[in-house]
Amino acid sequence: MSLFRTHARKSRRSLALLLGTALSFVVAPQLHAADVSTPATNAPAKEQILPGKIVYAQLTTPDLDKAKTFYGSLLGWTFKDVTVSKGQYTQAIVNGRPVAGLVERPNMVAHGDPLWLPFISVQDVKAAASAAKVWGGHILFKPQNVIGRGDESVISDPQGGLFAALRSATGDIPDDTTPPQQGEWVWNALLTSKPYEAAGFYQKLFGYQVEAAPDAKRGSAYLLESQSITRATINPLPPRLPDGAHARWMNFVQVDNVGATAQKAVELGGKVLVQPHPDRQDTIIAVLADPTGAAFGVMEWHDSTGTGDAK
Protein backbone atom coordinates (compact mmCIF):
# COMPACT_ATOMS: atom_id res chain seq x y z
CA MET A 1 0.00 0.00 0.00
CA SER A 2 1.37 3.41 -0.89
CA LEU A 3 -0.32 6.74 -1.40
CA PHE A 4 2.87 8.78 -1.53
CA ARG A 5 4.82 9.26 -4.72
CA THR A 6 8.55 8.71 -4.35
CA HIS A 7 10.97 10.20 -6.85
CA ALA A 8 14.56 9.60 -7.90
CA ARG A 9 17.06 9.98 -5.09
CA LYS A 10 18.82 13.02 -6.53
CA SER A 11 15.57 14.88 -6.94
CA ARG A 12 14.32 13.86 -3.51
CA ARG A 13 17.54 14.99 -1.87
CA SER A 14 17.19 18.36 -3.57
CA LEU A 15 13.64 18.59 -2.32
CA ALA A 16 14.73 17.70 1.19
CA LEU A 17 16.95 20.75 1.30
CA LEU A 18 14.06 23.04 0.46
CA LEU A 19 12.53 22.70 3.89
CA GLY A 20 15.53 23.33 6.11
CA THR A 21 14.58 26.90 7.06
CA ALA A 22 11.09 27.35 5.70
CA LEU A 23 9.49 25.08 8.28
CA SER A 24 10.98 27.05 11.14
CA PHE A 25 8.00 29.38 10.85
CA VAL A 26 5.26 26.74 11.10
CA VAL A 27 2.74 27.18 13.91
CA ALA A 28 0.33 24.24 13.80
CA PRO A 29 -2.30 22.95 16.22
CA GLN A 30 -1.21 20.43 18.84
CA LEU A 31 -1.69 16.94 17.51
CA HIS A 32 -3.20 13.88 19.14
CA ALA A 33 -4.00 10.43 17.80
CA ALA A 34 -7.37 9.05 16.80
CA ASP A 35 -8.41 5.41 16.90
CA VAL A 36 -8.93 4.54 13.26
CA SER A 37 -9.30 1.25 11.42
CA THR A 38 -9.85 1.53 7.67
CA PRO A 39 -9.59 -0.64 4.57
CA ALA A 40 -6.59 -1.16 2.37
CA THR A 41 -5.99 0.76 -0.85
CA ASN A 42 -4.89 -0.55 -4.22
CA ALA A 43 -1.65 -2.51 -3.84
CA PRO A 44 0.71 -4.62 -5.94
CA ALA A 45 -0.11 -8.28 -6.46
CA LYS A 46 3.22 -9.39 -5.03
CA GLU A 47 3.92 -8.38 -1.45
CA GLN A 48 6.86 -6.04 -1.03
CA ILE A 49 7.59 -4.22 2.20
CA LEU A 50 9.73 -1.07 2.07
CA PRO A 51 10.58 -0.25 5.70
CA GLY A 52 10.75 3.47 6.39
CA LYS A 53 8.65 4.49 3.41
CA ILE A 54 5.73 6.76 4.31
CA VAL A 55 2.95 4.87 2.57
CA TYR A 56 -0.30 6.39 3.75
CA ALA A 57 -1.85 9.53 5.19
CA GLN A 58 -5.11 9.72 7.08
CA LEU A 59 -7.17 12.66 8.26
CA THR A 60 -9.25 12.42 11.41
CA THR A 61 -11.94 15.09 11.35
CA PRO A 62 -15.15 15.92 13.25
CA ASP A 63 -17.03 16.72 10.02
CA LEU A 64 -16.39 14.46 7.03
CA ASP A 65 -18.75 16.30 4.68
CA LYS A 66 -17.04 19.61 5.41
CA ALA A 67 -13.62 18.01 4.86
CA LYS A 68 -14.70 16.53 1.54
CA THR A 69 -15.98 19.90 0.37
CA PHE A 70 -12.79 21.67 1.45
CA TYR A 71 -10.20 19.25 0.06
CA GLY A 72 -12.23 18.47 -3.05
CA SER A 73 -12.57 22.13 -3.95
CA LEU A 74 -9.00 23.00 -2.95
CA LEU A 75 -7.01 20.07 -4.36
CA GLY A 76 -9.34 18.53 -6.92
CA TRP A 77 -9.76 15.34 -4.91
CA THR A 78 -12.79 13.16 -5.60
CA PHE A 79 -14.04 10.71 -2.99
CA LYS A 80 -15.11 7.11 -2.67
CA ASP A 81 -17.06 6.30 0.48
CA VAL A 82 -16.14 2.98 2.10
CA THR A 83 -18.23 0.98 4.56
CA VAL A 84 -16.44 0.43 7.89
CA SER A 85 -17.44 -1.22 11.16
CA LYS A 86 -18.05 2.09 12.88
CA GLY A 87 -18.05 5.74 11.91
CA GLN A 88 -17.68 7.10 8.38
CA TYR A 89 -14.67 6.71 6.09
CA THR A 90 -13.85 7.85 2.58
CA GLN A 91 -10.89 7.59 0.23
CA ALA A 92 -9.61 10.63 -1.68
CA ILE A 93 -8.88 9.89 -5.34
CA VAL A 94 -6.59 11.63 -7.86
CA ASN A 95 -6.40 10.37 -11.45
CA GLY A 96 -8.17 7.18 -10.42
CA ARG A 97 -5.70 6.42 -7.63
CA PRO A 98 -6.26 6.74 -3.85
CA VAL A 99 -4.16 9.49 -2.27
CA ALA A 100 -5.57 9.69 1.26
CA GLY A 101 -8.06 8.36 3.77
CA LEU A 102 -10.48 10.54 5.73
CA VAL A 103 -12.32 9.30 8.81
CA GLU A 104 -15.01 11.10 10.81
CA ARG A 105 -14.91 11.28 14.59
CA PRO A 106 -17.67 13.72 15.65
CA ASN A 107 -16.52 13.73 19.28
CA MET A 108 -12.99 15.05 18.80
CA VAL A 109 -12.71 15.84 22.51
CA ALA A 110 -12.35 12.12 23.08
CA HIS A 111 -10.14 11.49 20.05
CA GLY A 112 -7.81 14.50 20.00
CA ASP A 113 -7.51 17.46 17.68
CA PRO A 114 -8.14 17.05 13.93
CA LEU A 115 -4.91 15.94 12.26
CA TRP A 116 -3.21 14.25 9.35
CA LEU A 117 -1.48 11.08 10.55
CA PRO A 118 1.37 9.55 8.50
CA PHE A 119 1.69 5.75 8.23
CA ILE A 120 5.26 4.42 7.99
CA SER A 121 6.00 0.98 6.59
CA VAL A 122 7.66 -1.58 8.88
CA GLN A 123 8.40 -5.29 8.66
CA ASP A 124 6.96 -6.19 12.09
CA VAL A 125 4.51 -3.88 13.86
CA LYS A 126 4.62 -5.67 17.21
CA ALA A 127 8.41 -5.55 17.26
CA ALA A 128 8.36 -1.87 16.28
CA ALA A 129 5.88 -1.02 19.03
CA SER A 130 7.95 -2.87 21.64
CA ALA A 131 11.12 -1.15 20.45
CA ALA A 132 9.45 2.25 20.48
CA LYS A 133 8.66 1.82 24.18
CA VAL A 134 12.23 0.81 24.94
CA TRP A 135 13.56 3.91 23.19
CA GLY A 136 11.21 6.35 24.92
CA GLY A 137 8.11 6.29 22.72
CA HIS A 138 4.53 5.65 23.78
CA ILE A 139 1.94 3.30 22.30
CA LEU A 140 -1.37 5.09 21.85
CA PHE A 141 -3.08 2.17 20.15
CA LYS A 142 -1.68 -1.33 20.49
CA PRO A 143 -0.80 -3.37 17.41
CA GLN A 144 -3.91 -4.71 15.75
CA ASN A 145 -4.76 -6.42 12.50
CA VAL A 146 -7.19 -4.67 10.18
CA ILE A 147 -8.69 -7.05 7.65
CA GLY A 148 -7.56 -6.18 4.14
CA ARG A 149 -5.07 -3.64 5.39
CA GLY A 150 -2.55 -5.33 7.66
CA ASP A 151 -1.03 -4.78 11.08
CA GLU A 152 -0.86 -1.25 12.48
CA SER A 153 -0.14 0.63 15.67
CA VAL A 154 -0.32 4.34 16.54
CA ILE A 155 2.84 5.53 18.28
CA SER A 156 4.11 8.76 19.83
CA ASP A 157 7.82 9.45 19.60
CA PRO A 158 9.61 10.71 22.76
CA GLN A 159 8.83 14.34 21.85
CA GLY A 160 5.14 13.69 21.13
CA GLY A 161 5.25 13.34 17.33
CA LEU A 162 2.47 10.98 16.23
CA PHE A 163 2.64 8.40 13.48
CA ALA A 164 1.34 4.93 12.69
CA ALA A 165 3.55 1.91 11.99
CA LEU A 166 2.05 -0.29 9.26
CA ARG A 167 2.80 -3.74 7.87
CA SER A 168 0.60 -3.85 4.78
CA ALA A 169 -1.19 -7.11 4.12
CA THR A 170 -0.76 -6.61 0.37
CA GLY A 171 2.64 -4.93 0.21
CA ASP A 172 3.94 -1.44 -0.56
CA ILE A 173 3.76 -0.04 -4.07
CA PRO A 174 7.27 0.33 -5.57
CA ASP A 175 8.82 3.78 -5.61
CA ASP A 176 7.70 5.89 -8.55
CA THR A 177 10.04 8.20 -10.46
CA THR A 178 7.34 10.11 -12.36
CA PRO A 179 6.84 13.76 -11.36
CA PRO A 180 4.04 14.44 -8.84
CA GLN A 181 0.77 15.90 -10.05
CA GLN A 182 -1.72 18.31 -8.51
CA GLY A 183 -3.25 16.75 -5.41
CA GLU A 184 -0.56 14.10 -4.77
CA TRP A 185 1.58 13.99 -1.64
CA VAL A 186 5.12 15.05 -2.38
CA TRP A 187 7.04 15.46 0.88
CA ASN A 188 7.13 14.81 4.65
CA ALA A 189 8.84 16.59 7.53
CA LEU A 190 9.04 16.08 11.27
CA LEU A 191 9.24 19.24 13.42
CA THR A 192 10.70 18.55 16.84
CA SER A 193 12.40 20.25 19.77
CA LYS A 194 15.20 17.65 19.72
CA PRO A 195 16.20 16.84 16.13
CA TYR A 196 19.29 14.84 17.10
CA GLU A 197 17.40 12.60 19.54
CA ALA A 198 14.50 12.25 17.10
CA ALA A 199 16.87 11.17 14.32
CA GLY A 200 18.23 8.43 16.57
CA PHE A 201 14.76 7.24 17.55
CA TYR A 202 13.51 6.93 13.97
CA GLN A 203 16.80 5.42 12.80
CA LYS A 204 16.56 2.63 15.36
CA LEU A 205 12.86 2.08 14.76
CA PHE A 206 12.81 2.00 10.95
CA GLY A 207 16.44 1.38 10.03
CA TYR A 208 16.85 4.76 8.35
CA GLN A 209 20.17 5.99 7.10
CA VAL A 210 20.50 9.40 8.73
CA GLU A 211 22.47 12.26 7.23
CA ALA A 212 22.93 15.80 8.46
CA ALA A 213 21.09 18.22 6.20
CA PRO A 214 23.57 20.31 4.21
CA ASP A 215 23.67 24.04 5.02
CA ALA A 216 21.89 23.43 8.34
CA LYS A 217 23.25 24.39 11.73
CA ARG A 218 25.07 21.44 13.25
CA GLY A 219 22.66 19.07 14.98
CA SER A 220 19.56 20.97 13.83
CA ALA A 221 18.30 19.13 10.74
CA TYR A 222 18.59 15.65 9.26
CA LEU A 223 17.59 13.59 6.23
CA LEU A 224 15.97 10.16 6.69
CA GLU A 225 16.71 7.65 3.93
CA SER A 226 15.61 4.08 3.22
CA GLN A 227 16.16 2.01 0.09
CA SER A 228 18.60 4.79 -0.97
CA ILE A 229 15.72 7.28 -1.19
CA THR A 230 15.25 10.31 1.03
CA ARG A 231 11.90 9.84 2.80
CA ALA A 232 11.66 12.88 5.08
CA THR A 233 13.48 15.66 6.87
CA ILE A 234 13.74 16.32 10.60
CA ASN A 235 13.72 20.03 11.45
CA PRO A 236 13.56 22.13 14.65
CA LEU A 237 10.23 23.30 16.01
CA PRO A 238 9.55 26.99 15.41
CA PRO A 239 11.08 29.15 18.13
CA ARG A 240 7.80 31.00 18.71
CA LEU A 241 6.14 27.88 20.13
CA PRO A 242 6.09 27.54 23.94
CA ASP A 243 8.60 25.38 25.77
CA GLY A 244 7.48 21.77 25.86
CA ALA A 245 5.49 21.98 22.61
CA HIS A 246 4.88 18.59 21.03
CA ALA A 247 6.66 17.46 17.90
CA ARG A 248 4.47 17.08 14.84
CA TRP A 249 4.66 15.55 11.37
CA MET A 250 3.85 17.78 8.41
CA ASN A 251 2.84 16.33 5.03
CA PHE A 252 3.00 18.36 1.79
CA VAL A 253 0.72 18.14 -1.26
CA GLN A 254 1.85 19.08 -4.75
CA VAL A 255 -0.23 21.92 -6.24
CA ASP A 256 0.00 23.86 -9.49
CA ASN A 257 -0.02 27.26 -7.80
CA VAL A 258 0.71 27.69 -4.09
CA GLY A 259 -0.44 31.31 -3.96
CA ALA A 260 -3.80 30.60 -5.55
CA THR A 261 -4.23 27.50 -3.37
CA ALA A 262 -3.59 29.48 -0.18
CA GLN A 263 -6.06 32.17 -1.20
CA LYS A 264 -8.70 29.58 -2.05
CA ALA A 265 -8.12 27.78 1.27
CA VAL A 266 -9.12 30.96 3.11
CA GLU A 267 -12.19 31.40 0.89
CA LEU A 268 -13.20 27.83 1.80
CA GLY A 269 -12.93 28.49 5.53
CA GLY A 270 -9.34 27.38 6.14
CA LYS A 271 -6.34 29.36 7.35
CA VAL A 272 -2.86 30.17 6.12
CA LEU A 273 -0.38 29.26 8.87
CA VAL A 274 2.72 30.07 6.81
CA GLN A 275 2.32 32.45 3.88
CA PRO A 276 3.41 31.30 0.41
CA HIS A 277 7.08 32.00 -0.17
CA PRO A 278 9.85 30.84 -2.51
CA ASP A 279 12.52 28.45 -1.42
CA ARG A 280 15.51 26.86 -3.12
CA GLN A 281 15.31 25.88 -6.80
CA ASP A 282 12.26 28.10 -7.38
CA THR A 283 10.14 25.86 -5.20
CA ILE A 284 7.25 27.59 -3.41
CA ILE A 285 5.64 26.33 -0.22
CA ALA A 286 2.94 27.31 2.28
CA VAL A 287 1.38 25.69 5.32
CA LEU A 288 -2.40 25.68 5.62
CA ALA A 289 -5.08 24.48 8.03
CA ASP A 290 -8.47 23.15 7.00
CA PRO A 291 -11.65 24.57 8.59
CA THR A 292 -11.32 22.27 11.62
CA GLY A 293 -7.64 23.08 12.20
CA ALA A 294 -5.85 20.08 10.65
CA ALA A 295 -2.51 21.36 9.32
CA PHE A 296 -0.87 20.35 6.03
CA GLY A 297 1.57 21.82 3.55
CA VAL A 298 1.27 22.67 -0.12
CA MET A 299 4.19 22.86 -2.50
CA GLU A 300 5.13 23.65 -6.06
CA TRP A 301 8.04 21.35 -6.75
CA HIS A 302 9.53 21.07 -10.22
CA ASP A 303 11.79 18.15 -11.09
CA SER A 304 14.71 19.81 -12.86
CA THR A 305 16.58 16.53 -13.44
CA GLY A 306 14.37 15.23 -16.21
CA THR A 307 13.55 18.22 -18.39
CA GLY A 308 16.17 20.81 -17.53
CA ASP A 309 15.97 23.69 -15.11
CA ALA A 310 12.98 24.06 -12.84
CA LYS A 311 10.40 26.58 -13.95
UniProtKB/TrEMBL annotation:
Top-rank taxon, per record: Bacteria
Keyword annotations: Signal
Residues in VOC domain copies: 53-168, 184-301
A Pfam family reported for this protein in Swiss-Prot or TrEMBL: Glyoxalase_6
Signal peptide: 1-33
Source lineage: Bacteria, Pseudomonadati, Pseudomonadota, Alphaproteobacteria, Acetobacterales
Name assigned to this protein: Hydroxylase
Matching InterPro entries: Anthracycline_SecMetBiosynth (IPR052164), Glyas_Bleomycin-R_OHBP_Dase (IPR029068), Glyas_Fos-R_dOase_dom (IPR004360), Glyoxalase_6 (IPR041581), VOC_core (IPR037523)
